[in-house]
Amino acid sequence: MMNRKRAAPSSAVTASSAASPSASKKRKTDNVQKFYAVQVGFRPGVYTTYAECAQQTAGFKGALFRSFISRSDAEAFAAGQKVATTSEGPARYYAVAVGNPTGIFNEWDDAAEAIKGVKGPKYKRFSSRAEAVDYIREYGSMEAVMALGERLTGATTGGTKIDMPTQVKKPTKTTRVPPPLALPQAPAGLIRVYTDGSSLANGKAGARAGVGVFFGPGDERNLSERLEGEPQTNQRAELMAMLRALQTCPAGATVQIVSDSQYSINCVTQWATSWKRKGWVTAQGEPVKNQDIIRAVLARMEERGKAGGATQFEWVKGHASDRGNQAADALAVRGAKM
Which of 73, 110, 150, 260 is an active site residue? Predict the structure, then answer.
């Protein structure tokens, strides 16, 4: 995964000049017990060592994890809840474009750990996450960029904090974590993809919606992004997730979209026929809501059919035991927070 490139530019932080000021801080924090919360990864949960955390996040696009000194805060974060953070001074983002691992860190101790022993590391401190992401895009490998879970084109608009902590001594007690992610095996020639949408404060002013598309653990096609445009509703996010999945898959492939949104499935498999016949107005004579996305999905389905493929839909109960749906939901929630 590591991409060995030329040394960092002169403006980058160097190990010799930056490590010394934080040495006393590192000695103080080395003996502090930390809990590593994985919200989005192969096996979400709370871990007691960084090594265990890294096993669940390395190579997982859009992985979301942080360290805490409170077990309760870690468990809340892993469950998708918002956990307040405290810090002194302005926010700092340490971008490690070449390191082991790569990523964006909020503490120098963590960034220093990622570049230790790496030949030709590339890293730099920024005051905004967007600048840190741009730095990794410029100097990092494709794997380093994909590991951020950011879109590869367009400007960044900020994102979720990724805190990669240092190794600590493993205590005698451990936190139970979910079993390994196991998904149903798709028949040969069929692309099975899970989609979901999320809207924080759905239906209220200031709502933020996100899109989640999950093909499988570690799949580079997995997607987590903020819903563009207005309104920022859950239904629009659900439909957009379907559209993004169809845009990602080859036109001639047969795709099975698994969603917990009966509304979205009905829109494109049942109600659309009547809407098209009536000029995209409802029985009450009002314009069909979200028709821009619905019509885009239908166009992709038609295009797929002409190319020899097909589009199938499967409904699953949301927030239940379907691991693929859970992963798509986590990606959608993360997108809403971007």
Answer: 260
- The model's pLDDT over 79-97, given as tens digits with 9 standing for 90+, comes to 877 776 554 456 788 888 8
- Domain of 291? 190-336
The C-alpha atoms of residue 95 and residue 150 are separated, in whole angstroms, by 14
210 part of the active site: no
8 A C-beta contact, residue 307 and residue 300? no
**Is 30 annotated as catalytic?**
no
207 and 326 both lie in a single domain: yes
* Residue 329 bears catalytic tag: yes
Active site residue 252: no
Total tally of structural domains belonging to the chain: 2
- 207 and 290 both lie in a single domain: yes
Q: CA–CA separation, 338 vs 331, rounded Å? A: 11
Q: Is the pTM here over 0.90, yes or no?
A: no
pLDDT of residue 274: 92
Q: List the catalytic residue out of 41, 52, 329, 335.
A: 329
